[in-house]
Amino acid sequence: MDSANLSQAPNTDNSFRFITTQNPESARDPAVRRQVRSHAVKHALQDKRKLERELSANFRPASISAARISVVEKGTQTSQSLGKLYSPLASAYTSPRLEVLISHHAAKEAAEPVFSVANDVAFQTFPLVFRTGRDDPALLNAILLTFALAVTGGIMNQECLGYQNMAMSTIRERISSPDRPVSVATLGAILLLAGVEARLGMPLQVQLHMTAISQLLDLCRASDVYLTDGIKRAIFWQDLNTSVITGSKRVVDHTTFPELQWRRDPFSLNYFILPPGFQDQTHLFTEEFVEVLKDIHALQCIRDSSDFIAEDTLMMVNLDNHHASIESRLAGLPNSSLFSECVHFAAYLCACMLCCKVYRHSVIPSQISAKLLQKLEQVHGDSIWDHWDGQTSCLLWLIFIGGSFAPVGTKSGYIELLRFKYATRFANRYQSWPAVHEVLKQFIWSEKAFSSQVKTFWEDASFVPNANRNFD
């Protein structure tokens, strides 16, 4: 916290009021005593208001009107600049430092997946996740820590440590008090702390906090505490994401909360088919993974459909549940070989990129693409790629999917791997973008969600003989 050293202001001439009396007995007069009491109360209130004004440099709770919440639900406003536009988070906490942090580009997706300030995740906005506890100091400090860490590029400076200490001490005090019920704000603060620890590569701390979440959920069930749909969704995604990043043991899955339940649409069963590129490779995968691939193909069909509207909240909630089912199952599937592990990572990455835009800027795609590159480097000399033509095509798809959604450092590794494959295994094949494009479409592929970044990767890797930058 940004707690300034508050020193008591000296008394002014108006701090005391002298009441003259004729004799000591007059002080006992009821009228005089009421006058003295009124004066004392007046100055006590003045002192209280002064202290509140001084503390407002840190934070001040404010209410969120129903009209403003409806605006956020419709996704008609953003929080790109808190000084100019309405922000649900700013209305919850008026803090100059928070305004500075959240207006920074690096902090835009920092609070994902606990809550979002992006239009395309309108169902997971701050007021919809935290309908109570908007003046909660633990939650505020966890939010400030999350944004401050994003602004510093992942460096825990003194400011970050201050927010972390304040959040953790408040949470400890609250949990140790048996007479204080568990709140959505407390759960949210712990989730944000776990997200920070995952980014810092602290698996033991992540596990500790997610275990605490599991125990608090048990208390909520036993005490019949109401939890918002948004906080349940936040718990699921933060648990899954931190597990993917750090390897922590998961405490919930896609079956834990009824709000995240998903089933295949019986009226769209033609979407749930295996992409043709995988049809000759089903013997290399488990039956469960084949079903997941069908669900990803359906997700791609929905994403590419002309009926897809990102601003449709109900559609996006159902899509999020579809996505949750896919990635939760993928994270728990065993791998029978390095080859199947490579395809698992690529499928997970595709599912991320098929959903709303915030996933593109989260840490998950970069983590998955880095792991996929590591596996591809381990298996690149394996004879599995020589068994039939479909395996070579699958290798091309794996490299392009991983390289297209990789951060700069990892992308160079993919380009180097691709250069080696073109010099050896690919020989004179896939010399033009149309040829590459035709192969990619046989696997998991979305023109809307993938084409821009994949074409950029092709441009970056345009060392291929006779290749050009014409994508028509």
Determine the number of helices (DSSP H or I, runs of at least 4 residues). Answer: 19
Quaternary structure state of the chains depicted: single chain
Terminal CA distance = 55 Å
Q: What is the H/E order?
A: HHHHHHHHHHHHHHHHHHH
Q: Spans with pLDDT under 50 lasting ≥5 residues?
A: 1-21, 51-86, 464-472
Q: Per the principal axes of the C-alpha atoms, what is the gross shape?
A: elongated
- Taking all Cα atoms into account, the compactness measure Rg is 28 Å
Give the helix proportion (percent range): 55-70%
Overall structural class, as computed from helix and strand content, comes to: mainly alpha
What can be said about this structure in brief?
The chain is mainly alpha-helical and 472 residues long. 57% of the residues lie in helices and 0% in strands. It has helices at residues 30-55, 66-74, 88-92, 96-102, 126-129, 137-151, 158-175, 184-199, 203-223, 229-246, 287-304, 313-332, 338-354, 358-361, 363-379, 389-404, 408-423, 433-440, 447-460.
Task: Please write out the topology.
Elements: H1 30-55, H2 66-74, H3 88-92, H4 96-102, H5 126-129, H6 137-151, H7 158-175, H8 184-199, H9 203-223, H10 229-246, H11 287-304, H12 313-332, H13 338-354, H14 358-361, H15 363-379, H16 389-404, H17 408-423, H18 433-440, H19 447-460
Helix pairs in contact: 4-6, 6-7, 6-8, 7-8, 8-9, 8-10, 9-10, 10-12, 11-12, 11-13, 12-13, 13-15, 15-16, 15-17, 16-17, 16-19
